[in-house]
């Protein structure tokens, strides 16, 4: 009798459908006889072809060459060149009206890029001119290779901060400026190498492990650390701590109260209020974006004039000083692969590379989805990576697409990457002719510009949203924030990533399992806890597992299911005695050898309790392995496999009635 | 019109059920009107109560105190004491017939434990007597605290090997024997502390990360390393390498060909053949288990007699030498918490503790499931941990339940942990009176005993099974094996664990997604690739996601779904133009803030393409978050939520027909 069950083939009688449960015994019996569907195994595939498919899904989820299929060879070549140089996509159809838009956008971001370039270079303990160099060559390279139309390329605050702090641990920028510069270029080279490799090896998913919660917390923490560093410039302190944490910086600020200069503080307050007001205006009326975009340059001009007119440098206000005119000098001879510093530069390159890549790709994706075009993540990585490799050979340090500058670019109406070229040309003009004008620019105004820029990284609405959505994510966010502020920028990031991954692992180790019940009058089975209308089916324990079954959770599943069986068995009256344990495998995407052993174990132990284990709807890979286990040891006959819970319940209740004494 | 959809409440008309798709338009229309079910959110819970439930599932999946509920206070106390001391479970009802069985089993495992104890201590570079001490106190402690009835406790090969190799890196056992001994006891103390803490903190799931594939590969590798170490004794080499890897050991063996002693080799071959034959006999006829159980002791006796009679120690056969009579001396004064060695002992304790815990718990679980009783993993960890802490204070080194000895115990018919007590008492008698008899025992026979014992750890059928089941698991197994043999025991293990975890993460980063089709004549929707009978529904793209949606995979999901939509849109003829994208969330157990952002993004981008996004059957937590996102921003109106794909398709095809021009 048992052998007969489950042996029905497909029922091709297309006009009948849907099993009715609880709608009368006779009906159920007929229904069970009529509509049993077999669980099919996926078509047999060789290991090699499965491996190929897996590799393709892992590394080429976007299938970048799908357009190439079936095209003639010459077209393929043209397409390949176009793929490598996205500039060819838009240059042929470039028009004067597009150029007008890009010109406006390019000049706007240049007015932002010049003061920010100088400021961020100082944040990285580099000579200010390196910041301008970095706003000249990399944007040109990106314009050729990059696929985003909105990304405005240049140095960014967080990567500058991290590079400065990591290199300062080994070398003092004041004592050995040349060595420090060499290490900065070498780190930039490695950053570019890491970024380009991630793109070429299509390992872009590594940056996905920086979750939104991690980034929100990290950015907010880094913004505060960056702002704290500016207290040196804003208060006019000369002997400032070289440490970064909240505690040592505040201690240093309080300890050096005597060095505070009232002239500097007055200037700081005025320009900070001005910049923040401009920022506020632009946020409130987005059409006035140019107010905040031009404010930094305006502040630089006004403050430089003030210093020049009042000879303020003689009253305790520190100024940038002489800057040399001229374009980027080649710096490949400055790349330093000395084993003594190799570890440091590789590590610095890795951290700054991944951080700046994350920012660049995220910014690119954000604006692409606003304008509804596609940005290829891996191609972006190659573009950003090459841009940094070229940069490291032309006196530039780490650059990427900055959020604030790209937002201005977008608001100013940029159409193509030409706006980056315009910006680079403007910076070039500055480098060639206008450098002497910056002699009297006070450092305090640069500090104010940095603070006004990074304050946007503290995204309180996002934090509130995370708190409301998911308390665990909020914890991750908080840890990233606290780690950055109290320990260090890198370790805060590492802690947050660690917690995120641990959380994912915990989800696997303790997968969700539910008892399902039948929704009255249907053949739908749903979670008893979630649906009040769902009712237990007497004699059945219907469980769903919602995770891959693997080594990390088989022990848990085993214990948990046994406990449920025990509870059910002890609670059951004679009428509703437990006969069947149904395991719905619909939501189990994969199973490993430990998982198969677990199923075999479970089958044996349920049999010892006089119960029968039924498996419902194993998906492709799982079905394949169940079949293999059956071939090897005969553990899973086809009569314990059903396609839906409804069919299993209908068929088995009929069966148990027929065989009941 | 749109507002009307999805607004149907529950249909309580229990006699109707099952939606028919494709069975005539009129029918479908009626069916769609009749049986739409709402997606319910789980009952509202406070964060605290959710956290409590989560913590309970994570740390108390077995709910150890569920028997306590509703019992009077005194009963609770009695139960608590019984929980802490499982000995109280069986002692009150202990009978003479049980004792007879335990006596036979205890004497049998003692005959195995004495030669193995001496051998394994030598493997750990410790004095042989420490091995006997370790077979005396820990079994007594375990008998009181342990909940397994079959576990035979004592030193084991792999933990001995690892402890020896890790401590030898810092201290030479020949040059500083006392310091080495101190470090061994201290490591044992930390091992016990780690084990007991894992039990008390209920972090037992940490050992779950050693998957079956990892363990099979690791054990096989370790068995080979252990056997290689025995070549010193088997060949009679005096100047042997202190390294462990395959390459240096074989180099050392070949380099010292002149030291090979033919007398030793002859003896080695004879006894090895004898032991392996005995092993083979016991495996073929399980009733003759005592043959392999008693063979080691018989070999020791015979070889000792031979050496004594022929004065073989004068012919190049090395012997154990004088051993002192007497029981374990207290060793708490030997525990060394010197900062210089603290790192080493903590690390050694951690590694040996987790390895031996894994073995002990796995062995306990295996035999418990054979005899169908429950072993509480966390309680076992506490028992094994306390046993090692007590052991470290009474001149014992790391002990756990050994697989081979427990199997003998089980086969010999043990009934309770009393067999461990019998074994301990036998070892005690040996320690008190029989130690002088071991003076002439040759080292070569100990080497042969170790090889015969560890050869069982090479589980070729399991390897074959893993190869057939899962190629990726096989790779993990191979890496563990190769890592142990060519790099080092600890690093081989670390590599295998790393690959296992990376694999789990990769599964999350690249989750399975399938296009589903309707199985003809039913309302069942299944994977198009797996079921040939499944057919696409024109106008619909039905996708299932089988993983939690979180930061690690939202980018991938986004790209993959967009690509599918693109392909569908370009392939569709006018008749079958794509209108709806259905995302079946049944198999999505959890979602985080990145996941919610992804859904919102996806909804916006599908709308831009003139498509409608439909979500089917979000489970508890996911539904809750979708609801919260809707409350906050109104992204997910209830008209895009359906309980089953069948209902969604039926309702939407009716709807699109009604509104079509």
Concise structural overview:
Two copies of one chain form a homodimer. The first copy, chain A, has helices at residues 25-34, 47-59, 73-84, 87-90, 96-123, 128-133, 137-145, 157-168, 177-200, 212-235, 246-255, 262-284, 289-310, 339-371, 377-392, 403-411, 418-434, 443-454, 460-469, 471-487, 489-509, 554-571, 593-608, 620-633, 645-659, and strands at 153-154, 400-401, 513-519, 525-527, 534-535, 540-545, 580-584, 612-616, 641-642.
Question: Can you give a write-up of this model?
Answer:
The structure is a homodimer of 661-residue chains. Chain A has 661 residues and is mostly helical. The first copy, chain A, folds into two domains: 95-502, no CATH class; 512-659, STAS domain (Transcription Regulator spoIIAA, 2-Layer Sandwich), CATH 3.30.750.24. The first copy, chain A, has 25 helices and nine strands. In chain A, the strands form two sheets. In chain A, strands 3, 4, 5, 6, 7, 8 and 9 form a seven-stranded mixed beta sheet that branches. In chain A, strand 3 (513-519) and strand 4 (525-527) form a beta hairpin. In chain A, helix 7 (137-145) packs antiparallel against helix 17 (418-434), helix 10 runs antiparallel to helix 18 and helix 22 packs parallel to helix 23 (593-608). Chains A, B: It comes from Oryza glaberrima (African rice). Chains A, B: It is found in: Membrane. Chains A, B: It is a multi-pass membrane protein. Chains A, B: Pfam families: STAS, Sulfate_transp. Chains A, B: This is STAS domain-containing protein.
